[in-house]
Design a protein that fits this description.
This protein has 71 residues and is mainly α. The chain is built from two helices and no strands. The chain has helices spanning 11-26, 32-66. The longest helix is centred in the last third of the chain and has 35 residues, at 32-66. It is elongated. The termini are far apart.
Length: 71
């Protein structure tokens, strides 16, 4: 199965995939070759989620300031 590029996944799909990866790491079902690819994928997913959270936080701060709700 071909993996969807990380940039094309939404936040929820990224989290779901990370949970699946975690599961496969815990039950040790991965070969060493797959492990390398999987860890790389997981780090890309984490980075993507982190960037989305940061940009969402910035958007929320802008809206709060626009509405005059900031301190």
């Amino acid at each position: 199965s071909k993996m969807t590029p990380v940039k094309d996944l939404n936040y929820d799909d990224s989290i779901t995939e990370l949970q699946k990866i975690l599961g496969s790491l815990q039950d040790e079902s991965l070969s060493i070759d797959d492990l390398t690819v999987t860890i790389k994928r997981a780090s890309e997913l984490l980075e993507s989620c982190h960037q989305r959270l940061v940009s969402t936080e910035k958007e929320v701060e802008k809206i709060i300031q626009k509405l005059g709700l900031g301190d």
